[in-house]
Amino acid sequence: MRTTRAMLIALLVTLSVVGAGLGPATAAASASVQEQTQCSFPFTATDATGTEITVDERPERVTTLNPSAAQTMWEIGGREQVVGLSQFALYLDGAESRQNVSAAGFGVNNEKVVGTDPDLVLAPNSISNETVLALRDAGLTVFRFESATSIEAIEAKTTLTGQLTGNCAGAAEANAWMTQNVDAAQTAVEGAERPRVIYPLGGGFVAGDETFIDAMITASGGSNVVADFGLAGYPELSDEEVIESGPEVVLISTPGGAAILDSEPYASTPAAENNRTVYVERNYLNQPAPRSVVYAVGNMTAGFHPDAYGGAQFVTRAEVAASMETDEPTETTQTTTTPAPVDDTPATAEPTDATSPGFGVAAAVLALVATTLLATRRR
């Protein structure tokens, strides 16, 4: 039963994960993590299913099966190529005009995916091999990524996405924007004492070591207490373990989430004693993509170390483009604003729409866990 619950809660994050996926590439075209500003076709790389995928020419129609893949396409200048995306990517500017390929509940609707008539489908690791094979049997070219566990993996995935879709210059610029802001945050807090941080996912599950969330916490000058326990992935902690870990800051990803400090076990932690939460919008905290890293790291660094990092160190996308003297401007959103200031008591109401990005996944997963537990007790 514990294993089943762990698998269900993992969907909180893996539904939004599209990782590095850098299997061995063929000699024809390497899926190298080195930045490439010029794309070439045909391009061949091995995906997470162990299949060599060849893209013969720049795809005009791309369908993304998870929100971080869609966000990446937006950031590298490929938004006009996207014809299909998941319901959790609808927060992106202009996404509502694309076909929603999500199935009722979790996963994707294969018929809707086929109906978008894509030249290329970008699939996350949370999509099963069976679904990938079914889409391939329907005649589609599908690249399935592996999970991302670090900022470097996100950088590599962005490069690979650019190579697959013909947006190499945009991918290089997006990666430069991401890495320069991560470097700026790390420089600002160098030598500072790291607060002990925890990110609750609900139902006792938390973000642990070997996850991109842990990597962002570390880059922001925090110390993930779950990683300090030697726990990887998204483990479940008991109330006693949460209290023992002694978090000084609790990460929250929904407005109103600070209320977690009012109930146990978090009411008995140093975070509650000092009323310390750091709010990062869920679409940034839970999605491994360049924009997510930039804004999540910016907000977390400002929240963990307000005296050292106030946003002045933030590097805009326009500044990066100018420094690279990019010949191919990319279409992006939110490229010149500084990270939103951290607010421990957000004024906006907590969303309750089960179809909203991120929150709907969490609510649905926890409901499914509860239903499964209840059914088990009745047997």
UniProtKB/TrEMBL annotation:
GO terms for cellular component: plasma membrane; S-layer. The keyword Calcium does not apply. Residues 322-354 are annotated as: Disordered. Residues 331-354 have a biased composition (Low complexity). Residues 61-308 form the Fe/B12 periplasmic-binding domain. Gene3D superfamilies: Nitrogenase molybdenum iron protein domain. InterPro entries: ABC_Transporter_SBP, ABC_transptr_periplasmic_BD, Peripla_PGF_1, PGF_CTERM. Pfam families: Peripla_BP_2, PGF-CTERM. Keywords: Signal. PROSITE patterns: FE_B12_PBP. One of its GO terms (biological process) is cellular response to iron ion. This is Iron complex transport system substrate-binding protein. It comes from Halogranum gelatinilyticum.
